[in-house]
Design a protein that fits this description.
Layout: H1 3-12, H2 18-29, E1 35-38, E2 52-57, H3 60-67, H4 69-78, E3 86-91, E4 104-109, H5 115-119, E5 123-131, H6 137-143, E6 147-156, E7 159-163, H7 181-187, E8 199-204
Parallel strand pairs: 1-2, 1-4, 2-3, 4-5
Antiparallel strand pairs: 5-8, 6-7, 6-8
Length: 206
Protein backbone atom coordinates (compact mmCIF):
# COMPACT_ATOMS: atom_id res chain seq x y z
CA UNK A 1 0.00 0.00 0.00
CA UNK A 2 1.40 3.39 -0.93
CA UNK A 3 1.72 6.15 1.65
CA UNK A 4 -0.74 8.23 -0.38
CA UNK A 5 -3.35 5.47 -0.37
CA UNK A 6 -2.94 5.01 3.38
CA UNK A 7 -3.17 8.75 4.05
CA UNK A 8 -6.32 9.15 1.95
CA UNK A 9 -8.03 6.26 3.74
CA UNK A 10 -6.96 7.55 7.17
CA UNK A 11 -8.53 10.91 6.34
CA UNK A 12 -11.70 9.19 5.13
CA UNK A 13 -11.81 6.97 8.22
CA UNK A 14 -11.11 9.75 10.72
CA UNK A 15 -13.90 8.42 12.97
CA UNK A 16 -12.40 4.96 13.24
CA UNK A 17 -14.69 2.23 12.00
CA UNK A 18 -17.69 4.52 11.50
CA UNK A 19 -18.24 3.69 7.84
CA UNK A 20 -17.63 0.01 8.56
CA UNK A 21 -20.38 0.03 11.19
CA UNK A 22 -22.71 1.85 8.79
CA UNK A 23 -22.33 -0.67 6.01
CA UNK A 24 -22.50 -3.62 8.39
CA UNK A 25 -25.96 -2.38 9.40
CA UNK A 26 -26.96 -1.73 5.79
CA UNK A 27 -25.64 -5.14 4.72
CA UNK A 28 -27.75 -6.93 7.31
CA UNK A 29 -30.88 -5.16 6.04
CA UNK A 30 -30.15 -4.99 2.32
CA UNK A 31 -28.74 -8.03 0.51
CA UNK A 32 -27.22 -6.91 -2.77
CA UNK A 33 -25.23 -8.50 -5.55
CA UNK A 34 -24.11 -5.39 -7.42
CA UNK A 35 -23.58 -2.04 -5.71
CA UNK A 36 -22.97 1.42 -7.19
CA UNK A 37 -21.42 4.14 -5.03
CA UNK A 38 -21.59 7.38 -7.01
CA UNK A 39 -19.54 10.25 -5.62
CA UNK A 40 -17.63 7.83 -3.42
CA UNK A 41 -14.30 9.66 -3.16
CA UNK A 42 -12.18 6.98 -1.38
CA UNK A 43 -14.84 5.47 0.87
CA UNK A 44 -14.34 1.73 0.20
CA UNK A 45 -16.38 0.63 3.23
CA UNK A 46 -19.16 -0.94 1.09
CA UNK A 47 -16.56 -3.50 -0.03
CA UNK A 48 -16.12 -4.57 3.58
CA UNK A 49 -19.64 -6.03 3.26
CA UNK A 50 -20.54 -6.41 -0.43
CA UNK A 51 -18.64 -8.50 -2.97
CA UNK A 52 -19.20 -6.43 -6.14
CA UNK A 53 -18.99 -2.65 -5.84
CA UNK A 54 -18.51 -0.02 -8.53
CA UNK A 55 -17.20 3.31 -7.31
CA UNK A 56 -17.44 6.54 -9.32
CA UNK A 57 -15.92 9.95 -8.68
CA UNK A 58 -14.33 12.75 -10.70
CA UNK A 59 -11.72 13.65 -8.06
CA UNK A 60 -8.15 12.94 -9.21
CA UNK A 61 -7.19 11.84 -5.70
CA UNK A 62 -9.88 9.14 -5.83
CA UNK A 63 -8.53 7.97 -9.19
CA UNK A 64 -5.02 7.71 -7.74
CA UNK A 65 -6.35 5.88 -4.67
CA UNK A 66 -8.19 3.22 -6.66
CA UNK A 67 -5.26 2.85 -9.07
CA UNK A 68 -3.38 1.28 -6.12
CA UNK A 69 -5.36 -1.94 -6.48
CA UNK A 70 -3.26 -3.92 -4.01
CA UNK A 71 -3.50 -1.17 -1.43
CA UNK A 72 -7.28 -0.98 -1.72
CA UNK A 73 -7.52 -4.76 -1.50
CA UNK A 74 -5.41 -4.65 1.66
CA UNK A 75 -7.76 -2.10 3.26
CA UNK A 76 -10.75 -4.28 2.36
CA UNK A 77 -9.09 -7.42 3.75
CA UNK A 78 -8.16 -5.64 6.99
CA UNK A 79 -11.85 -4.89 7.54
CA UNK A 80 -13.20 -8.37 6.96
CA UNK A 81 -13.98 -8.04 3.28
CA UNK A 82 -14.02 -11.03 0.97
CA UNK A 83 -10.56 -11.68 -0.52
CA UNK A 84 -12.23 -12.47 -3.86
CA UNK A 85 -14.48 -9.40 -3.82
CA UNK A 86 -14.64 -7.36 -7.01
CA UNK A 87 -14.40 -3.60 -7.09
CA UNK A 88 -14.16 -1.21 -10.00
CA UNK A 89 -13.64 2.52 -10.26
CA UNK A 90 -15.01 4.91 -12.86
CA UNK A 91 -13.18 8.22 -13.02
CA UNK A 92 -15.68 10.77 -14.19
CA UNK A 93 -18.93 12.65 -13.67
CA UNK A 94 -21.56 10.34 -12.16
CA UNK A 95 -24.19 12.15 -14.23
CA UNK A 96 -22.61 10.66 -17.35
CA UNK A 97 -21.98 7.06 -16.33
CA UNK A 98 -22.08 4.60 -19.22
CA UNK A 99 -23.50 1.69 -17.25
CA UNK A 100 -26.38 -0.66 -17.94
CA UNK A 101 -29.77 0.57 -16.75
CA UNK A 102 -31.37 -1.50 -14.01
CA UNK A 103 -28.19 -3.45 -13.33
CA UNK A 104 -27.53 -2.53 -9.68
CA UNK A 105 -29.19 -3.81 -6.52
CA UNK A 106 -28.00 -0.99 -4.26
CA UNK A 107 -27.28 2.66 -5.12
CA UNK A 108 -25.41 4.76 -2.54
CA UNK A 109 -25.84 8.54 -2.27
CA UNK A 110 -23.92 10.11 0.62
CA UNK A 111 -22.82 13.75 0.58
CA UNK A 112 -22.40 13.92 -3.20
CA UNK A 113 -25.36 15.72 -4.77
CA UNK A 114 -28.47 14.62 -6.63
CA UNK A 115 -27.43 11.04 -7.29
CA UNK A 116 -30.96 9.67 -7.02
CA UNK A 117 -31.94 11.69 -10.08
CA UNK A 118 -28.76 11.13 -12.09
CA UNK A 119 -28.30 7.42 -11.36
CA UNK A 120 -31.76 6.20 -10.37
CA UNK A 121 -32.22 4.50 -13.74
CA UNK A 122 -29.20 2.29 -13.00
CA UNK A 123 -31.01 0.76 -10.01
CA UNK A 124 -33.18 -2.26 -10.75
CA UNK A 125 -36.85 -2.31 -9.83
CA UNK A 126 -36.90 -3.79 -6.33
CA UNK A 127 -33.42 -2.43 -5.64
CA UNK A 128 -32.52 -0.04 -2.84
CA UNK A 129 -31.30 3.54 -2.67
CA UNK A 130 -29.26 4.48 0.42
CA UNK A 131 -29.40 8.26 0.71
CA UNK A 132 -28.85 10.93 3.33
CA UNK A 133 -30.20 14.47 3.48
CA UNK A 134 -27.01 16.14 2.24
CA UNK A 135 -27.55 18.47 -0.72
CA UNK A 136 -31.28 17.65 -0.56
CA UNK A 137 -31.01 14.26 -2.26
CA UNK A 138 -33.23 12.50 0.28
CA UNK A 139 -35.92 15.13 -0.29
CA UNK A 140 -35.55 14.68 -4.04
CA UNK A 141 -35.87 10.92 -3.67
CA UNK A 142 -39.09 11.38 -1.69
CA UNK A 143 -40.56 13.25 -4.66
CA UNK A 144 -39.46 10.63 -7.19
CA UNK A 145 -42.41 8.42 -8.29
CA UNK A 146 -39.95 5.59 -8.98
CA UNK A 147 -39.03 5.41 -5.29
CA UNK A 148 -40.82 4.56 -2.04
CA UNK A 149 -39.47 5.00 1.49
CA UNK A 150 -38.69 1.54 2.89
CA UNK A 151 -36.68 2.18 6.09
CA UNK A 152 -34.59 4.69 7.99
CA UNK A 153 -31.11 4.38 9.45
CA UNK A 154 -30.66 5.77 12.94
CA UNK A 155 -27.35 6.59 14.60
CA UNK A 156 -27.17 6.44 18.38
CA UNK A 157 -23.96 6.32 20.42
CA UNK A 158 -21.96 5.27 17.37
CA UNK A 159 -24.33 2.41 16.52
CA UNK A 160 -26.35 2.25 13.32
CA UNK A 161 -29.73 0.55 13.24
CA UNK A 162 -32.20 0.07 10.40
CA UNK A 163 -35.93 0.32 11.07
CA UNK A 164 -39.04 0.16 8.88
CA UNK A 165 -41.44 1.04 11.69
CA UNK A 166 -43.67 4.14 11.77
CA UNK A 167 -42.24 5.53 8.56
CA UNK A 168 -45.04 8.09 8.34
CA UNK A 169 -43.32 9.97 11.17
CA UNK A 170 -40.38 10.74 8.93
CA UNK A 171 -39.90 13.28 6.16
CA UNK A 172 -42.41 15.63 7.78
CA UNK A 173 -41.22 19.26 7.28
CA UNK A 174 -40.89 21.41 10.40
CA UNK A 175 -42.58 24.29 8.62
CA UNK A 176 -45.37 24.50 6.08
CA UNK A 177 -43.70 24.85 2.75
CA UNK A 178 -44.09 23.83 -0.84
CA UNK A 179 -41.45 21.21 -1.63
CA UNK A 180 -40.90 20.63 -5.33
CA UNK A 181 -38.12 19.19 -7.41
CA UNK A 182 -37.20 22.68 -8.56
CA UNK A 183 -37.15 24.14 -5.03
CA UNK A 184 -35.00 21.31 -3.69
CA UNK A 185 -32.52 21.59 -6.55
CA UNK A 186 -32.41 25.37 -6.26
CA UNK A 187 -31.63 25.27 -2.53
CA UNK A 188 -29.07 22.49 -2.81
CA UNK A 189 -29.57 21.50 0.80
CA UNK A 190 -31.72 19.22 2.87
CA UNK A 191 -35.21 19.92 4.18
CA UNK A 192 -35.62 20.54 7.91
CA UNK A 193 -37.73 17.62 9.08
CA UNK A 194 -39.31 17.03 12.50
CA UNK A 195 -37.37 13.77 12.78
CA UNK A 196 -33.95 13.41 11.21
CA UNK A 197 -32.36 9.96 10.94
CA UNK A 198 -28.84 9.50 9.63
CA UNK A 199 -30.08 8.23 6.28
CA UNK A 200 -32.99 6.66 4.42
CA UNK A 201 -33.54 3.52 2.39
CA UNK A 202 -35.84 3.81 -0.61
CA UNK A 203 -37.03 0.93 -2.76
CA UNK A 204 -37.27 1.40 -6.49
CA UNK A 205 -40.87 0.52 -7.30
CA UNK A 206 -41.13 1.76 -10.88
Amino acid sequence: MTARTSALWEKQDQHKGDRWRLFQAVGEAVPAGRVLYAGSFVDVAPSFVYDDVTYADMDKRAAAFFADTEGVQQIIAEHGGNADARFAFVHGDYRLLDLEAGSFDLLISLYAGFISEACGHLLRVGGTLLVNASHGDAALAALDPRLALAAVIQLNDGRYTVSNRDLDRFMVPKTTQSITVDSVKASGRGIAYTKTPFAYLFERVG
